[in-house]
Amino acid sequence: MKKTIFFFFVFLVLVQGAFTEEEAVQEVALIAKKWEYFPNTLTAKKGVTVKVYITSIDVTHGISFREFEKSGRKVVKGKITTFTFTPTKAGEYSFACTNFCGAGHGEMKGKIIVEE
Questions:
Q1: Rounded to 5 degrees, what are φ and ψ at 9?
Q2: Is beta strand 49-56 parallel, antiparallel or unpaired with respect to 25-33?
Q3: Could you tell me the CATH number of the domain that includes residue 105?
């Protein structure tokens, strides 16, 4: 498990904010743990597809970018969940855990800043 977390951190460093020019996709990596996301603030560009890689290091969590997608995703401990969304308007928006994960569940939130 510790090796998995180490390699995911390396992966996080490599893809955080990376763009692939051909397809204009921004890749970001997140880690979910009681009761926070790391990193908890993301920056994206309006109209550019964001590909999210997320894993949990403790229990099953969830994540939802409600402004940009219809439903949330489960984030299972030790597995990488991948999904995409495209921000359609500039501004600051929140994302949150959508799977009850314990006493601090209601505080498990993050922010996405969408730039023009």
A1: -65, -40
A2: parallel
A3: 2.60.40.420
- Please tell me the total number of residues recorded for the chain in this structure: 116
pLDDT digits (tens, 9 = 90+) for 32-70: 999 999 999 999 999 999 999 999 999 999 999 888 877
Strand positions, DSSP E, the chain? 18-20, 25-33, 36-38, 41-45, 49-56, 61-63, 73-75, 81-85, 91-96, 109-115
Report the domain count for the chain.
Answer: 1
The domain of 96 spans 2-115
Q: Which of 9, 13, 4 is nearest to 78 (CA)?
A: 4
Give the span between the Cα atoms of 99 and 61, in whole angstroms.
Answer: 5
* Residue 14, C-beta contacts closer than 8 angstroms, at least 6 positions apart: none
